[in-house]
Amino acid sequence: QEHRSIYEAIGDEKLQILVDAFYKRVASHSELTPIFPADLTETKRKQKQFLTQFFGGPPLYIQEHGHPMLRARHMPFPITPTRRDAWLSCMREAVFEVGIEQPYERIILERLTMTANNMMNTPEDEK
Ligand code: HEM
User: Which atom of ligand 1 is nearest to the CA of 51?
Assistant: First the structure.
């Protein structure tokens, strides 16, 4: 039986590479640049902390920022179905770029897809 967390299976170094590969794509995606800050340094740092705990590693995000309340924290940004798709395509490409073994690759993409669906807060025609 397998007792490793997703975080342990990927490793901290690869998680950092994944976060960098993801925001490199976000920074040049025309659907996403209007809502993200130009300087993604702090965004990357928070996302690395969040994904560490989301994947079963130490609770770094909650220690520094409190309960994630992700849907509430995303309310200031109009997240349409198109932006959800854009976010997920950047993440999918980043996951493929870094190369993660199965079943972790599949589990990671499933969990992120569910979370991204929950982040939508704006119909397509109101952005
Ligand atoms: C922050 C967009 C989905 C985790 C943000 C920010 C934006 C954004 C614009 C603010 C960046 C900043 O000011 O630094 C989106 C869009 C999504 C999405 C368009 C599409 C569905 C997700 C998902 C997760 C996530 C699925 C988690 C798996 C975070 C975290 C932060 C964040 C942890 C930092 C919150 C903080 O300020 O402490 N997101 N996001 N986001 N997002 Fe997302």
Answer: 28
> Which atom of ligand 1 sits closest to the CA of residue 83?
19
Range of the domain at 29: 6-126
Among the atoms of ligand 1, which is closest to the Cα of residue 117? 21
Residue pLDDT, tens place only, 47-96: 999 999 999 999 999 999 999 999 999 999 999 999 999 999 999 999 99
- List Cβ neighbours of 26 (8 Å cut-off, separation of 6 or more): 32, 33, 36, 40, 87, 90
Has residue 88 been placed in a domain?
yes
The CATH number of the domain holding residue 24 is 1.10.490.10
- Number of folded domains that form the chain: 1
- Asked whether residue 16 is domain-assigned, the answer is yes
- Write out residues with Cβ below 6 Å of ligand 1: 35-37, 42-43, 46-47, 50, 54, 65, 70, 73-74, 77, 79, 83-84, 87, 112, 115-116, 119
Q: How far apart are CA 79 and CA 76, in angstroms?
A: 9
Closest of 116, 109, 46, 114 to residue 87, by C-alpha? 116
